[in-house]
């Protein structure tokens, strides 16, 4: 079976690509608007793309052709965001924060989540997340209705007990959730194994 992307609607293209290019990590991103309202939303078009400098990128699609999602709008305003990784106990609450709220309302209100101040940026981080990456915007590419936000990572906060001082994971401690087929499938990452490289 072969799909010609040009002949498909954006919705069909999304379903096919998002269901096949899996598993994907999930960036749970906090940002702040100019009034200080904290915004949180998940993005699975996301990855780390280098370490020198340390960069991550994620892709908030526009709400319509020209209107950015709140996350992209806030980053355009103040160039700051925190990317959190999500593990299984946080799965439901992460999905809840994907609800579309009017600009100026926080997805974190009425949740049991707490926040901690960040080290370098004004946007706080979610205390319950196993990993939080404090980022500033490097640049944002606009490609049609897609935005690709590229960020520089300044601080990495890791839950106690996950990693040693040298940055090696403690065995059997970190099981981030993975995004699978569109719209609502996820995978656990408990079944891990090792394939040593040839040299
Ligand atoms: C697991 C998960 C992953 C998602 N990934 C993306 C994504 O990569 N890009 C995107 O535009 N929306 C994605 N969404 C939808 C956004 O989270 C949703 O549109 C959210 O309301 C955006 O919030 P904001 O307007 O506060 O930025 C995802 C939703 C879920 C539940």
Characterization of the model:
The protein is an alpha+beta fold. It has a single domain, classed as Electron Transport, Fmn-binding Protein, Chain A (Pnp Oxidase, Chain A), CATH 2.30.110.10. Helices cover 13% and strands 32% of the residues. It contains 3 helices and 11 strands, in the order αββββαβαββββββ. The strands form 3 sheets. The chain has a 7-stranded antiparallel β-sheet, covered by helices on one side. A hairpin with a 5-residue loop joins strand 1 (27-32) and strand 2. The chain is globular and about 50 Å long. The structure holds flavin mononucleotide (FMN). Residues 26, 39, 41-45, 59-61, 69-71, 95, 98, 100, 179 line the site of flavin mononucleotide.
The CATH C-level class name: Mainly Beta
Q: Structural class of the helix and strand makeup?
A: alpha+beta
Name the CATH architecture: Roll
Bound molecules: flavin mononucleotide
Mean pLDDT: 96
CATH third-tier fold name? Pnp Oxidase, Chain A
Strand order of the largest sheet: 2-1-5-8-9-4-3
The largest pleated sheet is described as:
7 strands, antiparallel
Count up the domains. Answer: 1
Rg for CA atoms:
17 Å
Q: Which geometry do the CA atoms define? A: globular
Strand fraction: 25-35%
H/I helix tally: 3
The secondary-structure element order is HEEEEHEHEEEEEE
Q: Total strand count, please? A: 11
CATH superfamily: Electron Transport, Fmn-binding Protein, Chain A
> Could you name the ranges where pLDDT drops below 50 across 5 or more consecutive residues?
none
